[in-house]
Amino acid sequence: MAKNPMDRFQGSEGQSPEEAQFFWRGGPIEVAERTWFQCVFSGSTALETDEGLVLVDSGQVVFGKGMAEMLRQRTAAPVHTAIFTHGHVDHAYGLSHFLKEGQPPPRVIGHAAMPARFARYEETSRHNSILNARQFGGTAKMAEEGDAYDLFHAPAILPDTFYEDRHALRVGGITFELHHCRGETDDHTWVYCPERGVLCSGDLFIWSVPNAGNPQKAQRYPWDWARGLREMAACQPRSLCPGHGGPMVNEPEKIQRMLLETAAYLESIVEQTLKALNDGSPPHVDIVARVCQPRSDSPWLQPVYDEAEFIVRNVIRHYGGWYTGRPSELKPAARAAVALEVAALAGGARALLARATALAEAGDTRLACHLADYALEASQEDKEVQSGVAAIYERRADGETSLMAINLFHSAAAYAREGRPFV
């Protein structure tokens, strides 16, 4: 595993989807007659009809141009209809790059919950930009210096057609079936084209443990997600075009296995978490410890982006609220006051850091990070504490597998080097 898994995007061309998993990039790949898939970070599928292209997802603004150039190697048809599987910035923002000069504006379809998403982005643009900076290893200061605060607004081309549960349309004699499924988002759509046997899953399938637990983001819905995966499998698609990673082409049996195994993975986590909640509603950290996290050798169920522990916490959040179950955390003291008290008991922030470093070197980075946090919060200006805490979090990142954990720990190290306790 690379130190920063995002670096793997640079080397994934030429690899099979199984080899590159979430990090595959490439295209255009012909997945069915007159149908092409291309991916740069996120995927886009173009289905050519006699009336023009039906485009499922359009990538991010910065990557849409590259994907459009891939597609135009195969077809010059204008975009008749665009379908956004959900409103994330890496799926619904690059449409302008795909449009032919002088073509009529395309119809743009999204789920009815999408306008509320874009409104929320406008209301919390800076907040979301900071969260995104942390997700990819940075800090608020880095986001501001890199002009990242302009990402989270409504896209330049908005949907003009919305649906609630299911919607079917025909373009150029070809059928497109749209199905709503709460999963990574509440506005998620999966698309099936029965004439061509092509399933466009959006982020309901991404060649990774599903992104159903992202620690910083809005509520996810793994129970609905699992049902949606089983409904997709029931369509018996011949080709699969995922939200991230490479396509599967003319492999219906393997696609069935991929979808159903992923559904079972989510169902196991949800069922175990609910059982633990019903068994006396113990503190959240104890519930996480009681859930036996599923393990799989399948390349599409590796924790390279999200991971099971975070999914458990997302289930708890939905059913159990924000109170962790620890009495001191119901109405806690200020963290700075607690840190100063703990440091005083330990003999100072550097004594805390020394113990944290010893624990990390012994392999207990989980416990080490608790002490490291207190050390930094008690003595933010101490350069030795700053560098020592940063080193502990870099060590912690090196021991993780999911992009979420790796980069959030890299972010913690970056905050420590700035002399700030992760705020």
**Lateral strand order in the biggest sheet:** 1-2-3-4-5-6-7
Give start-end ranges of low-pLDDT stretches. Answer: none
Tally of separate domains: 2
Helix share, percent: 40-55%
**Which sequence of SSEs, written as H and E, runs from N to C?**
HEEEEHEEHHHEEEEEHEHHHHHHHH
Structural class: alpha/beta
Topology, element by element:
Layout lengths: L16 H4 L5 E7 L2 E6 L1 E8 L2 E5 L4 H11 L7 E5 L23 E5 L2 H10 L1 H11 L4 H6 L15 E3 L2 E6 L2 E7 L8 E5 L4 E5 L19 H13 L4 E4 L9 H27 L5 H7 L17 H13 L14 H12 L2 H13 L3 H14 L4 H16 L4 H15 L6
Parallel strand pairs: 4-5, 5-6, 6-7, 11-12
Antiparallel strand pairs: 1-2, 2-3, 3-4, 8-9, 9-10, 10-11
Can you walk through the features of this model?
With 423 residues, the protein is an alpha/beta fold. It folds into 2 domains: 5-262, Metallo-beta-lactamase, Chain A (4-Layer Sandwich), CATH 3.60.15; 333-417, Serine Threonine Protein Phosphatase 5, Tetratricopeptide repeat (Alpha Horseshoe), CATH 1.25.40. Helices cover 41% and strands 16% of the residues. The protein has helices spanning 17-20, 61-71, 114-123, 125-135, 140-145, 222-234, 252-278, 284-290, 308-320, 335-346, 349-361, 365-378, 383-398, 403-417, and strands spanning 26-32, 35-40, 42-49, 52-56, 79-83, 107-111, 161-163, 166-171, 174-180, 189-193, 198-202, 239-242. α12 (365-378) runs antiparallel to α13. The protein is elongated and about 75 Å long.
